[in-house]
Amino acid sequence: MTRMSRERQERLMELLLAEKRRLWGEVRRELFGQVGGELQSQNDLPQDVGDRGLIDTLEDTGMAVADIRRQELTRMDEALGRLKEGRYGFCDECGAEIDEGRLRVAPYAPCCISCQTRREGPSYGPGVTL
Ligand SMILES: [Zn+2]
């Protein structure tokens, strides 16, 4: 397996952290927006509650999105873990580095665009590269 360059690793780290922030932003919006006034007025749910705490709270609300969000955040943590070990951003199939543009739109893409195309057939068409 190729060794990832430090620059690439840093850019991917930024990418994942930005995605994580976006994800958390959505979770917070859903949590504080929909369950709304009640929770906020209770004042016992600080905005800076830890990641897991917020997920637990989300689950307690019984909101339909809780499961989806938890899965997304779990995948995100796994991706960050793999990146720290230098294993993120490589194609599962051929071991090549996955294009950063592709990871930008699909941070959890398991394989490079050519393997993806081979797997699924040319659904994107030959002119489109992600
Ligand atoms: Zn590949």
TrEMBL record:
Organism name: Geobacter metallireducens (strain ATCC 53774 / DSM 7210 / GS-15)
UniProt name for this protein: Zinc finger transcriptional regulator, TraR/DksA family
Segments forming dksA C4-type zinc fingers: 91-115
Gene3D superfamilies with a match to the protein in the record: DksA, coiled-coil domain (1.20.120.910)
Keywords attached to this entry: Metal-binding, Zinc, Zinc-finger
Record carries keyword Zinc-finger: yes
Residue intervals of the Zinc finger DksA/TraR C4-type domain: 86-120
Gene Ontology terms for molecular function: zinc ion binding
